[in-house]
Phenylalanine--tRNA ligase alpha subunit (Marseilla massiliensis), 345 residues
Amino acid sequence: MILDKIEKLLEEVKGLNASTPEEIEALRLKYLSKKGEISSLMADFRNVPAEQKKEVGIKINELKQTALERINSLREQCETNEAKNDDLDLTRTPYPIKFGTRHPLTIVKNEIIDIFSRMGFTLADGPEVEDDLHVFTKMNFAADHPARDMQDTFFVETNPNDVTKNIILRSHTSSVQARVMETTQPPIRVICPGRVYRNEAITARAHCFFHQIEGLYIDKNVSFTDLKQVLLTFARELFGPDTKIRLRPSYFPFTEPSAEMDISCHICGGKGCGFCKHTGWVEILGCGMVDPNVLELCGIDSKIYSGYAFGLGVERITNLKYQVSDLRLFSENDVRFLHEFDAAN
């Protein structure tokens, strides 16, 4: 009698059909679960006469295997059909969300990096939380230099016994230059983009954090003429081929001689306007020949090698290119302001 029941179930299993995952799961529970048809047969197996146990056991195993294969086959067929009918396009723009754009500072930063990369400069990076040794000491700042004061620098930890061990938020990316010179022998040609911090009141013209890109080139027989030509090429690539530059003497602890660089106003072409305060010139960066003391402090022989360095503010350049009136707009994340740069991306 049990053999007749097995044969009947075997015919049922061979003809099983289902079109949804729910229906397939119902069939699995009906035949293969602990309370299903096949499990009940296993419970009746103990009452089978000894001489029939082998035959009945083989039949039950055949039924179980057939049911498992049939249900798995239905499941695979269902998954295949779902895949064919799936109209989800993962490449489609999410509606109604529009495509975003790069931040204006990122647009300008990438443009500057691209210009210097084509002139052979490579990227260098370093920590924003730095020690005084790399931010100031190796850049030839005196121990009592005003830049070290709490009024200008954010201090994380102070060491009253050794100023070089003070932990601070870097106030310029020159610390990256120091780390590169410590670990690399010339020739060195790097640019160091990054965020810097200074303890300043936040206004339309100043912020407590901003972005810099500094450059460093060290090799044998490097001259101020090399620096001037690189900066002229940079200015013309960024602001246009008719751009002129001028270098005014200045002072920085880490360069000697030092200079401020102006470009001819790209608004009025150097004729004079409100943007350039009717001078025809706009200041964009500081530069100079690397002070020999800096080279020696970083482990480079100043009698063999010389070099130049320059630094510019990304916000400053972005203001010049797009005439943004308020520096705070760059970090307020006002979508209306950011959408003005969609076409510049």
